[in-house]
Amino acid sequence: MKTTIKICIIGGGNIGLLFGKSLIQSGIVDTQNLLIIEKEPRQIAYIKQLEMGKVQNHYEKIETYDLIILAVKPQDANGMFTELLPHLCPQQIILSFMAGIKIQTLKDKLKVERIFRAMPNLPSLLGEGMIVYSQSENIPKIETYYIENLLSTTGKTLFVENEDLIDAATAISGSGPAYVFYFLNALVEAAQKMGFSQKEAELLVFQTFIGSIHLHQNHNLNFEEWINKVASKGGTTEVALNHFEQNHVSESIIEGAMKALKRANELSNVDL
Fold it and tell me: Which domains, and CATH codes, for the chain?
């Protein structure tokens, strides 16, 4: 790829701006070579205040950009495809963050062969994201390496050859932060029922969660081994864990994630 890359981001919402900021901060692109396309007038005014690069509400002259990032809502895809197609060149690279829209659909709609599809999650906003991505066939390794570096500016990356795993990632890492917050919220409510204030309960729960993650990351024990270390025979932890087991909490979590996967598959199979 060229030393100086020109990048166009279509969609100036949360994801588009997140990656725009990350790309500039990491030095992957400078403001002179970054273009953001946004339709909504108020958002255009906001983006201009950020001074992230050029901003426009149309697709003219984007044929001069090497990488086109699609960061619009999936329900807006058809209208975007229609407007975008006349301005694309076959040699351009497409990186799509649109949930549920497959690589083959992007090929058919945009007549471009080199396509990457990625699923970021909410912690990407803080550079702590988990991004799973796949790609079309016959893409040069240098381009794959470039896209991986680009994605890693917002967190960890995982490449999957099987594009269907993008939907699985949607159900696990994409939806996962909500599952974590659901569990944390339940523990905070439990702590408040025990007499702690909300502020005290949040401190107890959040630090326990963060500390547990760091503990796991710094030792070579699996989750079951950690559980056994905390849960002494006949103690308080064992009572709680037995209650979870009796009420099939683990199975319920797995079933919920599988339902999320089923919904992700349904959304992926919608005809555009």
Answer: 7-161 (3.40.50.720), 176-267 (1.10.3730.10)
Mean pLDDT of 108-124: 94
Give tens-digit pLDDT for 233-270: 999 999 999 999 999 999 999 999 999 999 988 877 76
- The per-residue pLDDT for 125 is 86
Q: What HEC string does the chain produce?
A: CCCCCCEEEECCCHHHHHHHHHHHHHCCCCHHHEEEECCCHHHHHHHHHHCCCEEECCCCCHHHCCEEEECCCHHHHHHHHHHHHHHCCCCCEEEECCCCCCHHHHHHHHCCCCEEEEECCHHHHHCCEEEEEEECCCCCHHHHHHHHHHHHHHEEEEECCCCHHHHHHHHHHHCHHHHHHHHHHHHHHHHHHCCCCHHHHHHHHHHHHHHHHHHHHCCCCCHHHHHHHHCCCCCHHHHHHHHHHHCCHHHHHHHHHHHHHHHHHHHHCCCC
Average pLDDT for residues 201-218, to the nearest whole number?
A: 97
- pTM comes to 0.88
